[in-house]
Fold each of these.
Amino acid sequence: MKKTISILFLIAYGFTCMAQDSSKTFHFSVGLGFMPVPTISIAGIDTSYNNSLSIAPVLDIRNNNGLGISYSPKFVAGGPSAGIYAHQVTVGLESYNKELFDVIADYSHYFFTGNIGIPSSPITNELYFSSTYKKPWVMPTLTLGYGFGTLRTAQTSKAVNDVNVSAGISHVFQKEFSEAAFSLVPAIKLNAGTNEYFSLLRSSRYISANKNYNKVVKRKKRNGTVIVANTQVAKKSFSLSNAEAELQGSFEKGSFSVRPGVSMFVPFSSGDNAVSLIWQIEMRYSF
């Protein structure tokens, strides 16, 4: 109940503040996102990890400068407990119409519902920054993510965090028709991070959307207790995680858009030798 009240308060407060201005200044959009999310199934002493379909409706309101707030409930369609597993509220800036830079800078809070099929995480907050310099033919891009929260056990609770950095290059291939536009954006990136815990952080999709996340994170839960997955890693360390080859697409016609994407992650760690393919699709309609 407290989580529901908090969600409703944040949404109501954000939308009330924005509604004080004229309707021409702010723009509403609704969307629907699809991507994988790892699920856990336990049968006796056996534990299996799989990817299930995550479905996330989105309600978004922003002003002409890109400042705004969005709310997204997240549903899992498979696993041992299909249903809602988290609510995400995001406040911040999304700016794509400037001449030199695309910029995203925002804060998100994740309200987990305790769905038993989804890996638990102490990381419930995210500070996210992403920027692409658009002037050169090969465009440099940088993403920074900082996740934080509280790790609670029967005896203690302590503040924990994870840090992620991604840097790479990309190029836009674009074609415009009479009433529509199509684009493809291939990119190559290097991803680094502390990778301590499972989380839903956007800056580490190789964890949040990967059934093999336990091969990446350094600390995981077993029987409700956090343990160090690799005894050689006794304290937090920041290191290169993987190389990423990404392809993002976009089709826009009027107020409707579809944005599919796929990424291949090639790990650097000898303990994680599995190449991961992670996809996502977002559909959106702007009013």
Amino acid sequence: MPSLTHQFFVFCCYIAPLSIAASDAEREYLFNDQFEDWEWSPILNGMKAEGRKRLAEGKDIGYEYRGPLFRKPVGFELPAGKMVVGAAAYAGTSMFLTEGQAGLHSRYSRKFVPRKKYAYEVALKGKGEFHFRAWVWGQNPDTGATKWHGFPNLITLKLTEDWTVHKGSFSLPEFDESTFLISTPAAAAIVIEKDTQAYIDDFRVFEVKGESPSFFPSPIPPLTPSTVQPQK
């Protein structure tokens, strides 16, 4: 008859995979954007002047519009590129973004806390560079005065001709908080600069709490993005 020690070891071997699977299922993502669902919304007053100016200059306004409506991914408040389907998409529906930014208001607002570590995964292709940039704001608790600490790039990735899945981790850089405390989590946005074309899909981020992200096939080196197999 097996000893009690042996029986306990066998029990642990069975229960450990179940515990890991439960942890993955219960993980709380800050966001998990697959860009599958898009909606038509009324063009906001703040968008009209800039849109007319760009059209008059013969420039692309960066989003689709139909009469008084514009199309955006569900969960975003302002324009966030154009919907891509078919062979050009990564899986199902993707986002195409040219010069501009996406997600600063509401979607990626108040997400990132100093001295915490975050893991990311994103599928990209295109020309130029992909940036995920933070807006870091501080306040003097004695006077109420505020200041911008800075706008650091949390993620910078070179775009390639074929779809490539990038994985890595990041933290907010350290700032001098002796006077202006970062008491509100920093906002961020996808930023695509001039002469850049970016196709984006499956962008997700979660906080790393003393563990390697288990949805990645291998441990993530801190602050160093890695690239896995390209996909056409």
Amino acid sequence: MTLTLALSLLLSAPAAWPQATGPFPEAVLVSITRDAAHGHDGVVGDAALLRREPGSLGHRAWPEDAWAALFGDLDGDGVPDLPDGVDALTEVRRPWQEQAWMTDLWFSMDRDAFGFSDGDVLRLTPAGPPEVVHREDELRAALGLSGGTFDVDALALRKDDGALCFSLRDGATGTVLGDLADGDVVAWLPDSGEVTILAREADFQAWVEHALGRSPGPIGDVKGIAFRPADGALCFTVQAPSDQDATVFTNLGGGEVVAGLEEAGWGFRDAFELDALTFAGAQEGPTLTLTVSDRNPAAGEVLRVTVRHATPGAQLTGWMSPRARVRRLALGGIGWVLPDAGAGFRPWPFAGDDFADEEGEFHGSLKVDVPGPGATREWVLQVVDVDGYGLSTPVRIHVR
């Protein structure tokens, strides 16, 4: 397929693409606490997001390269940036949205970076860079705190009343609610300023013990929380025991394991632990992902390009553009185009075959060139699976 034809299908005739027929199960979206090797997704970083439908294997749905595509170069060093770990995440999509877009996710980072605090609640804007939804100072004030560490490490928006529910990595002493353990979760209503206890660490401990039918020892920290859209149940992950630190639990029935989201089904080869947790909505098929070997290559360098979760044997079409513009489309994959058609497109100079293999993967190369003096050195890249799974996650490179 030519680049012109692919763009025509994307930008003028989305109905010609395969549409989801559903219903598809509500999936969870998670991060992990440290980099780990995955059985079919390479090494997954602690800023990447994985998606998993109940009863299926987990897969990487938002690589670190994709964060960098929307973050851009925040610190001015010429390299597109990404969050230094994602330890809290919640989706805020509208009731009529089946799928959560990246701009429908609020998140918090593991550490202070780019002028943001690890206690800030952030979101990506349609143009890309992150912005603050709630500053750490707001959350501190709600709890009556003025000093000490303050790192939000679990987050969930309760949609029926707009309460922001969160937990702190190190707990806190002397709050308006008394002392808080790192496994306590509070609910804050931003409009009224009211703050209450949603659940204590002891509640989570009891729910885990009931779900497992045994006492596994202290659960440590509560790592992630989320309200399940179907029934409003509180779902969560915990730090311990180590054989359950990637299991998703719920408080229903006095404490249960969420069926199909047990630790064993994530597909990792290395030891790992879940961190942030939210629900992501229905989606047909896995997320087509694009990654490159270097986001800051030298002119003339040959980049290694990897595409995963394509339709087996599908033809792949790629393009690159010097500017980004989000345009939501009713297509598979992430469902939006990042390169800006108004800025002009260039086809990918694929080296060799441009078809996915029988596993749905493509491993190729891209030679980075700069046309001449004054030419743009920043490019946004995306791939289309012509036969099925739609649009890939984006990548931004800055040629040095």
Amino acid sequence: MKKSHRIKKQKQLDIGGLIRWLVVLIVVVGLATALVSLYKLFRVQTVECRLLGAEACPDDLVQSLQFIINQPLFFVDFSKQISTVQLPQPVRLSKISKKLPSTLRLSFQLEPVAYVISTDQDIFFVSQSGQLYQQQFEQTGLVQVRLLSAWSHQSGSVELFIHHSLLAIIAGCQQLKLPLQTITWLDNSTIQLSMENRSEIFVIDSQQPNLELHRLALVLQSGEYQALTQSKQELDLRFKMPVLRTAR
């Protein structure tokens, strides 16, 4: 009788353990299914793109953002991803927001074109952030730049050191009211500037452009320089005393 009771109790324990394992298994499977469902649910299915001051982004910009579709809505650095993509418009990402369950909202701000790079084959418009664009823009009065040192447009942007130097030269000329027309970058120590309505070339380097531009403004305003009758060809401001080269 006691042995039969022990066998019955053992069977009850085995059945109880099996039930508990079944319950745990059902819970685990349920959680896994729920996680998979959530993973599929909270994925980007729609990208809403807006330009500040406009209703919607141009079609080519929207098309360039399609790589975001089907990515997880959370735990992804979309700002970093977008910064590595060559966008067809000179824009800067200004805001990211999310709408459950699957919509990513992106707001962009148009960047002004800073200058134009001309090569023997192509013309590139350069934004304030240094990105290259080959499409035409309505902006007028842009400074023309020629880069004769080794460079490649394949990266989609101008080398930061060169870009920041060019921006400093352009801003310095605007501040000093120097009518800058073209910049020819021969190398880091030889940059040629030409001004509107002036025949001579002005030479500076990239290390201290603001200082040399201030010296240039003073020289151009001096009566001695204006009184020179020789045909001026080049004024080199890279030395302590500017060097004027004239036609022989």
